[in-house]
């Protein structure tokens, strides 16, 4: 409530100035009434009765181009407080005034559009912003709002059009956003049975953003569904080139392809390279397993023992204890292994570069700040266990 009172002070000041200018312009009965109302409004404000104060100040102000900023500030205030209905009513009342200039009218329409967005009245907001975007000074905001509407409505073709528009009028690149919009549209095309169209859209995604992991991943998933393991593996290996940190996230798919293609040697080399380049308990575990399978458990034991000495971690300790168990089957070793394996050390963690949102799931669009492609794999719970 204190915050609201502070925000109302400029409104009160503007009302005071407005009242004074009318008062000195000519003494009248109305001026006396204004005078009384103004001090009544201030009294409400001082006594933290903000709602009543707002009503008084709104009634006190006449609507013209001089006072319009005050009205708009009030509307924004209502919206920020979550009182969207009040904001809509205020803006709708203002727009009905015939004495307004075109400039003031456009400003109110823009605010009304923002009210509709907050109220979830997307159809109304869409119609309004389509009309308003013809006016240069509102083009950027209209484009942003329409892009947001079409994403919420999953109208991906329209979203792509507005993503391209935003890219052309805004200094910040929209390539990552556009790539994800193409990917969304590709999934829609696939659901409609148009696999060829879907693949073309994925190509477009990669063209606008050569680092678009999702495009390669979706292509790999399409190929896997058709049992085209060679093609799937090629797409997955592209991801390894784009950002090797994503390899642990999709490791099962890589391993499935190598196994289906019956390429144990390639699988070994792939895991050995990944193990050397990425610090990931998921990769290390898979590599140790393949090492034991293809080169014998003693080699795997020596590898993980060295690794544990160089890089002590809960995950490496667990792998070491697992392989030790095979060597000496004592009850203590069993207990040790059971305790360690109850820790879910290999759970992936993701982090949003834009807003800092942490999650255990890969979201292409950040659930918190709604940015596309900002979430990266950052590590594992393992590292937190040492804190
Ligand atoms: Zn975020």
Strand arrangement in the largest pleated sheet: 2-1-3
* Main pleated-sheet profile: 3 strands, antiparallel
Mean pLDDT: 85
Level-2 CATH architecture of the domain at 243-346? Alpha Horseshoe
Estimated share of beta-strand residues: under 5%
Bound molecules: zinc ion
Contiguous helical run count? 20
Any descriptors?
20 helices, Serine Threonine Protein Phosphatase 5, Tetratricopeptide repeat, about 70% helix, about 375 residues, disordered C terminus, elongated, 3-stranded antiparallel sheet, mainly alpha, binds zinc ion, 3 strands
Structure notes:
- The protein has helices at 2-25, 29-46, 50-60, 68-80, 84-95, 102-119, 122-132, 139-152, 156-169, 175-191, 195-208, 213-225, 229-242, 251-260, 264-277, 281-295, 297-310, 314-327, 331-341, 381-385; strands spanning 348-352, 358-359, 375-380.
- A hairpin with a 5-residue loop joins strand 1 (348-352) and strand 2.
- With 387 residues, it is mainly alpha-helical.
- Strands 2-1-3 form a three-stranded antiparallel sheet.
- Among the domains are: 243-346, Serine Threonine Protein Phosphatase 5, Tetratricopeptide repeat (Alpha Horseshoe); 347-387.
- It is built from 20 helices and three strands.
- It is 71% helix and 3% strand.
- Bound molecules: zinc ion.
Outline the fold blueprint.
Layout: H1 2-25, H2 29-46, H3 50-60, H4 68-80, H5 84-95, H6 102-119, H7 122-132, H8 139-152, H9 156-169, H10 175-191, H11 195-208, H12 213-225, H13 229-242, H14 251-260, H15 264-277, H16 281-295, H17 297-310, H18 314-327, H19 331-341, E1 348-352, E2 358-359, E3 375-380, H20 381-385
Antiparallel strand pairs: 1-2, 1-3
Helix pairs in contact: 1-2, 1-3, 1-4, 2-3, 4-5, 4-6, 5-6, 6-7, 7-8, 8-9, 9-10, 10-11, 11-12, 12-13, 13-14, 15-16, 16-17, 17-18, 18-19
The structure holds zinc ion.
The site of zinc ion has 9 residues, from loops.
